C-alpha cells in the first residue's frame, strides 16, 4: 500500500462526512454552507478556521460560478491547503542539524525518531540518536530497539541521569564524528505539569547553547487527541518556541482537521506525518495531498 493510500484510508471518515455535504444533485444554498461549516468544525478544524474557510469559499463560488461537487470540493481542498504554515527549511534534509522531539506521553516521539533514523540511514546520511528520556528504563530499551532496527547508534545514560547531560554527550560525539543529523528523544510529559515543562525548557536551553549546528524543536502530536491537541501545542510552543510539528497516527481514527488548526493557529509547519507503526510509515507532508485526503476529490467519493 502506498503512503498516500494509508493516509487516505486513515482519513476515510472525514471524506465520508464531506461526501454527505457534497452529494451529487445537492443544492448549493444556505443549508449547504451551514452544513459545510458544521462539518469543518466537527472535523477538528476549529471554529475560526471553519468560519473563515466557509466564507471565503462562498465568495469564490459566487464569483466564479462554482456549482458542481467536483468544483466545490477542489476549491475547498485548495483553500484548506493554504491554511498550513509553510516550512522554511527541512530540518531532516538541511544538514547538519540537531532535532529535539517533545510532546506528551505516547504521542509517538520514539517511533518517529526511529523512523527518521531509518530514512537518514537509507539516504546515506550520518546520524546519531540521543536518548534523553532517562525517566523510564523501558524508554531507553525501546529506543535501543529502534536504533538496532534503523542501524543508528543510540547515545544515552542510565535511568535517572540528567536528560540535559545526554544532550551534551550526543552533541560532543556528533562534533567529533562530524555527524550530519542528531535526533534527540525526550521524555513524554503533560503540558499541564509546570515542573516537567521547566525541566524540558532546561534541556532545550542547554542543547541550543551547546550545539554548534542548528537546533530545531519539534512537537510530536497524536492526531487522534482531537481539539485537546491545540491546547497541548499552545503550551509547548509558549514554553519552548517550537520550530515545527510532526503529526502521528493519521492512519487511525483521526479526523485530521487538528493538523490544519494547529499549523494555522501557531503558524508552525508540519515536517512529516506518521501513518503507521512501522519503520517506513512516515511521510513528507504535502499540504495539497493532505487536504485532498481530508475532503476527497471528484464527484462521487
Ligand atoms: N497507528 C500508528 N501508531 C503510531 C504512530 N506513531 C506511533 N505509534 C504508536 O504509538 C505508541 C506510542 O508511541 P511512542 O513512540 O512510544 O510514543 P512516545 O511519544 O515516545 O511515548 P513516551 O515515551 O511515553 O513519551 C506506540 O504503540 C507506537 O507504535 C503512527 O503514526 N500510527
TrEMBL record:
Query: Boundaries of each Signal recognition particle SRP54 helical bundle domain copy?
Result: 7-84
Q: What does this protein do?
A: Involved in targeting and insertion of nascent membrane proteins into the cytoplasmic membrane. Acts as a receptor for the complex formed by the signal recognition particle (SRP) and the ribosome-nascent chain (RNC).
Keyword Disulfide bond in annotation: no
Q: Which SUPFAM superfamilies match?
A: Domain of the SRP/SRP receptor G-proteins (SSF47364), P-loop containing nucleoside triphosphate hydrolases (SSF52540)
Q: How does it sit in the membrane?
A: Peripheral membrane protein
Organism lineage reads as: Bacteria, Bacillati, Actinomycetota, Coriobacteriia, Coriobacteriales
Residues bound to GTP: 103-110, 185-189, 248-251
Which SMART domains does this one have? AAA, SRP54, SRP54_N
Give the record's keywords alphabetically. Answer: Cell membrane, Cytoplasm, GTP-binding, Hydrolase, Membrane, Nucleotide-binding, Receptor
User: Which EC numbers does the record give?
Assistant: 3.6.5.4
GO CC annotations? cytoplasm; plasma membrane
- Subunit organization: Part of the signal recognition particle protein translocation system, which is composed of SRP and FtsY.
* Family per record: Belongs to the GTP-binding SRP family. FtsY subfamily.
Localization terms from the record: Cell membrane; Cytoplasm
Q: Which residues form the signal peptide?
A: none
| GO BP terms in the entry | SRP-dependent cotranslational protein targeting to membrane
Q: Name one GO molecular function term.
A: signal recognition particle binding
- What protein name is recorded for this chain? Signal recognition particle receptor FtsY
Instruction: Give, as one word, the top-level EC class.
Output: hydrolase
